Amino acid sequence: MRIPLIAGNWKMYKTVAETVQFIDELKGLLAGAGDGVEVVLCPPYTALSAAAEALRGSGIFLSAQNMYWEEQGAFTGEISPLMLREIGCKYVILGHSERRQYFGETDEAVNKKAKAALKHGLIPIVCVGETLEEREAGITEKVISTQVKGALTGLDPAQTAGLVVAYEPVWAIGTGRTASDDDAQKVNAFIRGLLAEIAGREAAEKVRIQYGGSVKPENAAGLMAKPDIDGALVGGASLKPDSFAGIIKASR
Q: CA of 45: how far to CAs of 37, 81, 92, in Å?
């Protein structure tokens, strides 16, 4: 059975002080209410260390929003998987549409990062998703197939089984528009079929496939009820403890 994974991607929001305050409030809201769901917070780099300390003993896990694929070197401004592991990260988001759109991240780069993350014991949350133009052109499955296969090139079935895929239609991120429950399920089921082609059915059935894109407490339960939606990668609604807790509770 796949345990739902609810991850809050804070993007470029929250100072260290705001992070600690948020975690204190969230722990109170989830006391005894988070069973059956794995919860992950993804603060900005500057708050990771403080978040790790504040989360100690809470059962909530820590993720970075990105990383570079080298262990060390002359790569000004980058962060390595070793640094993330030392700080206490369990997960790392890779290939988010904002990284692709604003920073030129390619499927090849995501693949290098995924291999490096797995090598160093981090669980990649690999993001895939189509733009509105691609959706309207009827090429959603083609786009998703290219991204999934590109990101997972060279991974063996055991490695594939150990990662997370997040389907985030670009047109639904931060727009208030959400894919219908059935539309999200259709794409997630397609992704699981791709994973079966790549790594075999046994591995594919172990992979948690999240949905992301304007997820909020009001629509979380319907999405999570679908058989191939195994959690959510939450953006804006993860910035307030009460709304994030509401999504978590709706996902049990």
A: 25, 12, 11
**Identity of the residue numbered 100:** R
136 is catalytic: no
Render pLDDT for 48-77 as a digit per residue (tens, 0 to 9). Answer: 999 999 999 999 999 999 999 999 999 999
Q: What is the DSSP string of 45-113?
A: GGGHHHHHHHHTTSS-EEEES---SSSSSS-TT---HHHHHHHT-SEEEES-HHHHHHH---HHHHHHH
Active-site residue, from 25, 53, 96, 218: 96
The residue extents of the domains of the chain are 5-250
Q: What is the pLDDT of residues 39-52, one digit of tens each?
A: 999 999 999 999 99
| Angle (deg, nearest 10), helices 48-55 and 16-30 | 30
Task: Return the CATH number of the domain spanning residue range 5-250.
Answer: 3.20.20.70
The encoded tokens of residue 146 equal: 């290219």
Active site residue 120: no
Please, are residues 147 and 192 in contact by the beta-carbon 8 Å criterion?
no
- The number of angstroms, rounded, from the C-alpha of 168 to the middle of its chain's C-alpha atoms is 9
Residues paired with residue 62 on neighbouring β-strands, in sequence order: 41
Q: What is residue 82's predicted lDDT score, i.e. its pLDDT?
A: 98
DSSP state of 178: -
Selection from 73, 69, 21, 27 nearest residue 43 by Cα: 21
Q: Which of 71, 134, 168, 218 is catalytic?
A: 168
**Bigger pLDDT: 137 vs 252:** 137
Q: What does pTM read for this prediction? A: 0.96
Which two tokens mark 208? 């948690």
Q: Is 31 exposed, middle or buried (0-12, 13-18, 19+ CB in 10 A)?
A: exposed
